[in-house]
Amino acid sequence: MKPTILALDLEGTLISNAISQIPRPGLYQFLEHIQAQFDQLMMYTTVPEERFRSIATLLVREGSAPSWFAGLHYICWSGKTKDLLLASPRLGEALLLDDHKPYVHPGQEHLWVPIPLFGSPYPPSDDGLNIALRRLLVRIGGADCNQQTAPRSGEL
Fold first, then answer.
1. Residue-wise over 50-65: b if at least 16 C-beta within 10 A, else e?
2. pTM to 2 decimals?
3. Whole-number Å distance between alpha carbons of 134 and 144
4. Which of 8, 23, 65, 132 has minimal CB crowding within 10 Å?
5. Which long-range contacts (CB under 8 A, 24 or more apart) does 141-149 make?
6. Is residue 151 predicted with pLDDT exceeding 60?
7. Which residues contact 93 (CB under 8 A, 6 or more apart)?
């Protein structure tokens, strides 16, 4: 089954954290690229929904994220891991993009797409979203690694 849903982590993946809210370099372009590759994007974060909406609205207002980002479906959850059955009742239909392996639900490791942590000192040269995009395209069969479909370093 080709995954059609991408569940996105927020802190350490798309932004620094919910306090400093520094957007990861290339965030806007990354979101545009993945929106074109998946039928649905969802937010799967430990950040409470109201706080996520506030952060997302700020990112949109600052031009760091597309306008649709603030309206993403938010997965309400509790517990220690991110069970992708909350994103879709069909296991395999959703992938999880996250920087923190302990959040991967047992038995769903094959659906996890790891991304390097966006951590202090938050370098402007961070290439994590570009790495994640290439990994995602390989996972969904959206690009041959040898083709120029995925942006190269510095293009995001």
1. eebbebbeebbeeebb
2. 0.91
3. 9
4. 23
5. 141/2, 142/37
6. no
7. 1, 3, 4, 5, 87
